[in-house]
Amino acid sequence: MFRAPFWRAVTACAVIVISLAVTLAGTPRLGLDLRGGTQLVFESRSSPTVQADAAATDRALDVLRQRADALGVVDPTLVRSGERRIIVELPGVLDPRQAAEVIGRTAQLAFHPVLGAAEPGDASAVRDENGGLLKLGPAAITGDGVRDAAEQSDPQRGPGWWVGLEFREEAAWRELTGEAACQPRDDPRRRIAIVLDREVISSPPLDASIACGAGIPGGSAQITGSFTHEEARDLAVLIKGGALPVPLDLVEQRTVGPTLGAAAIDASARAAIAGLVLTAVFIVAVYRLAGLLSVAALLCYGVISYAALVAMGATFTLPGLAGFVLAIGMAIDANVLVFERAREEYQQAPGRGLRKALDRGFQNAWSAIADSNVTTLIAAGLLFWLASGPVKGFGVTLAVGVLASLVSAMLITRVLTQAVMGRVGPRLSGLGTAGSVRTWLTGRNPRLMRRPKLWLAVAGGLVAVAVAGLALRGLNFGVEFTGGRLVEFATSRPIPADVAGEAVARAGFPTAVVQAGDDGVSVRAARLGLDDVARIEQALEARAGEVTKRSEEFIGPSLGEELRRNALVALGVAVALQLGYLAVRFRWTFGAAAVLALLVDVLVVAGLFAWLSKPIDGVFLAAALTIVGYSVNDKVVVFDRVRELWAARRGEPLAEAVNGAILQTMPRTVNTGLGALFSLLALMAFGGDSLRDFAIALVVGIVTGTLSSAFVAGPAAIWLGRFDRRPAPEPAKPRRAAREARGSGAVV
């Protein structure tokens, strides 16, 4: 009796100490949506000479890294994602035009001899920097022949900047310039054309002092022109970085201002504190001293999960913070399961004492806790596998939160309660009474399953309303699933939506979707370039005063189609995996009933978003998969109790077991639902616009999921039971005592 609690307490102390050490020593890594900056996602494509595979993408990654370092970006992050994609994070870079132009430009540099002036109708003619037409010969030197490039200036030569070049092969440069020097002074053939991406950026004539055939010695040159410092630096970066081995297409771009990131962190912190306080007050009011001890374990849960994320090097994103806040409510779920089972055990045998009832509560609740957490981990894994951008952070946070909640409830809460229970009275402990909800249900004993078809008809009506919304209004897919660009501007004074729409239309985008609020305007369009964004910003400034770009998101059409396909795959795989898992754990009728109720939950939420025209994006996908996990979690608990009661009351109809299971698990269902709702209501109040829709989806999903566990899954299991001829399960055999009692135990 001594050995197991002792080592359990030692393990709990070790986990807490290690977590505190990591928390104090580690520094969280914030995503760009929290610290501000630009994220670019490039996709390599094959060229006539190079196949876009992992090796070619890695070589392109090296070139991009050199360019990012040369730009002077602090702590840039560049990683390959999959075989053909490169993710570039540039903290502090808020001009996506500069970032995309310099980082991702192909930069095919070449030095050409000029064969003479070209006629206007010549198809091979190219325009020089002044607009004249030139006819160029084959490239004499490519970008690979340039050893170094740097922006330069000299006050003695006057204002202005130029780019200094150093060549790897001096002979090639001397030969090219020596041949050009043999031409007359005003002849176009005396010029050298410097071509970047098939565009002549400079074609200077050779100085008259250069002799024919001698050329320019030393292997150096200067690209002159009306360059600003930034233009000269960017050109030097492109040349020095070298040519990309494969062309790159920009498929995704996100830009977030630093003030928006700071506001998101502040809002998430307030939501976390409010959710924790509300959950703590509720759990202490319901379970008294046991609830207070679980609050202490809940604080440890926060430290453990945060330390785990820091130790993993995980990136904290805005959806990830939302998952952290949501997990506060979900972490109390296991404690509620244990405490409710302990209450039942104590009511059945008060003479055994509180500690024995608590031990049996932990043992009997473990099956439902394990099942429910596995289903949530399935949803988190699908998010990490199929989601994109910051939503992956939500999947990581959710998975870590689930595992940390297991440690918190099954280890820390158990150590704390076992140390106290038995030393206080049943009333103070919070486990000695049945609870107000259970007492009311026991006194009334309602026959909820007397008319199961009625509940199925009500659920069918809700589904019909939801399907009508999907058919009549359709889903408002966000830019993440449709492709295009979404820009949010902050305005110094409010502007009506029609006035903002007129300004955007005058800027050249009459079909753009424009929404206006008290402090900003959002513009979404399928074909909106970076220069177009600047034009729209100028148009809005004429109507709304000072305008500041708050955030920007671009998704290429191919990536949008891929993300939309992945979202459907994620939901389909989630339902299939839940069905398979439930079929293994229970009989197929229970699994099918749970999945039917699950589809009702998802359809109701999707229908509500259709009627309200709320955006369907990656954050909604995170909410939908969380609803799937939470809903199945709830139904696992109900069917686990159905199986237990049906086995104990062999001979009774299945409907009686279902009715009894619903009544017995109702206190747990209500308490865990309220625990999660407190955190979500805090997110709705403090989380800002970006997380409010996420919280709305989860609130509706949890309420619907709680009701569907009783009034859809239960009746569906009864109806499907007619097709399952197998008898009721055998009652569980009692565990054999670990050690036989010896002697009478009498004290002589």
TrEMBL record:
This is Multifunctional fusion protein. The chain crosses the membrane at residues 267-287, 292-314, 320-339, 365-387, 393-413, 454-472, 567-584, 591-612, 618-639, 670-688, 694-720. It comes from the Bacteria. It comes from Nonomuraea monospora. Belongs to the SecD/SecF family. SecF subfamily. It is found in: Cell membrane. Forms a complex with SecD. Part of the essential Sec protein translocation apparatus which comprises SecA, SecYEG and auxiliary proteins SecDF. Other proteins may also be involved. Forms a complex with SecF. Part of the essential Sec protein translocation apparatus which comprises SecA, SecYEG and auxiliary proteins SecDF. Other proteins may also be involved. Residues 139-246 form the SecDF P1 head subdomain domain. Residues 58-114 form the Protein translocase subunit SecDF P1 domain. Residues 252-417, 537-721 form the Protein export membrane protein SecD/SecF C-terminal domain. Keywords: Cell membrane, Membrane, Protein transport, Translocation, Transmembrane, Transmembrane helix, Transport.
